[in-house]
Amino acid sequence: MGARAMVAVARPDGRYDCYHSQWGGEHLDRLVAWAWDDGVPPDLVDPEPVHTAVPADRVLARIDSRGYEALVAVAVDGAVEAYLVCRPGIETGRPTGTGAATAGTRDDAAASFVRDAAVLVPWTDAAAAARIRRFSRTAKEILGDAVDAGLLSAWLATAYLAVRLTRHPDVRSEIIWLPLGGATVG
């Protein structure tokens, strides 16, 4: 599958063209350092956008948190910000509470949150990204065991992991929650 990244390049009209990068998640340092006046880097980013003229408030809704590991946002002036896409949802062997019996209930909303929750964590460098990913994997395993043992709910474990990500020593600024179900941000 690769370490895929979405690259959102701002246009002068305030909209974004979004590109796919198969290996960009492993090479965020190269994407951040690229001189974007020269166009997209041909060895890292597909030449044709996957989405064009996306309004700024819809860019985050275009990120498939199961398919992308990173987001690179390029401003009109060439300033670049990179983010790791982290899914704090806790996977367990316990039933999720989805189905006809729980549709529209608090249990259904909690299951949706656990299944779909995703955050953007600001990327600073490759070493910090590796530490954040390792922390997230380890915490998810431990919290998953606690949920399986009935010590806490998957919803609470997911929310706890998201809070712990914001307090990780390598996270220098606030995380950004991705919209659930493609909702508009803003």
Automatic annotation (TrEMBL):
Top-level taxon of origin: Archaea
Pfam family, one: DUF6735
Protein name: DUF6735 family protein
Annotated source species: Halosimplex aquaticum
